[in-house]
Amino acid sequence: QVQLVESGGGLVQPGGSMTLSCAGSGFDFRASMMRWYRQPPTKAREFVADITGYAGVTDYRDSVKGRFTISRDDDTSTTYLEMRDLKPEDTAVYYCNVVGTAVFGQGTQVTVSS
User: Fold this and answer.
1) pLDDT by residue (tens digit) across 49-100?
2) Torsions phi, psi for 112 (to 5 deg)
3) What is the C-alpha to C-alpha distance for residues 19 and 110, in angstroms, rounded to an integer?
4) CA distances from residue 105 to 7, 85, 92, 109, 113 in whole angstroms, order as listed
5) What's the whole-number mean pLDDT along residues 27-53?
6) Rounded CA gap, 62 and 56, in Å?
7) What pLDDT score does 2 carry?
8) Strand arrangement of the beta sheet that strand 78-83 belongs to
9) Which of 75, 76, 79, 106 has its Cα between 20 and 30 A from that of 30?
10) How far is residue 65's CA from residue 114's CA, in Å, rounded to a whole number?
């Protein structure tokens, strides 16, 4: 079955960097559009970034443009979210998703705090 496993979260100081990973299995990763969402404390889940299959066209929410980079490695069926210049408002549980499905990983907590 379709499985997604996120990793790489933790505690980081404001201005710091962190890279999240999402390993996929059970589906045609190369052909799939992949998306990162996040859910801040007491808020609804929100779109962060996505990347198409094959051509790798990317899109970002406005508040992370220029700071976050989404990428993919089709050979290892992994998508990444590189985050720089992190801010306290980036604190959230981050999830990856296969676009067009209801499949999400278990999430990974990112906490930005001094």
Assistant:
1) 999 999 899 999 999 999 999 999 999 999 999 999 999 999 999 999 999 9
2) -110, 110
3) 10
4) 10, 25, 14, 12, 24
5) 97
6) 19
7) 92
8) 3-7, 18-25, 78-83, 68-73
9) 106
10) 23
The answer to whether the CB of 75 falls within 8 A of the CB of 29 is no
Residue 13 is predicted with a pLDDT of: 98
Please compute, for residue 75, the number of CA atoms within 13 A of its CA located in the half-sphere on the CB side: 0
Mean pLDDT of the chain: 97
CA proximity to 9, closest of 99, 71, 93, 96: 93
CA neighbor of 48 nearest in space, from 33, 32, 60, 34: 60
Residue among 25, 37, 32, 33 at smallest CA distance from 76: 25
Task: Please tell me the distance from the alpha carbon of residue 108 to that of residue 86, in angstroms, as a whole number.
Answer: 16
Half-sphere exposure of 14 (CA within 13 A, CB side): 5
The residue written with tokens 């404001």 in the block is 14
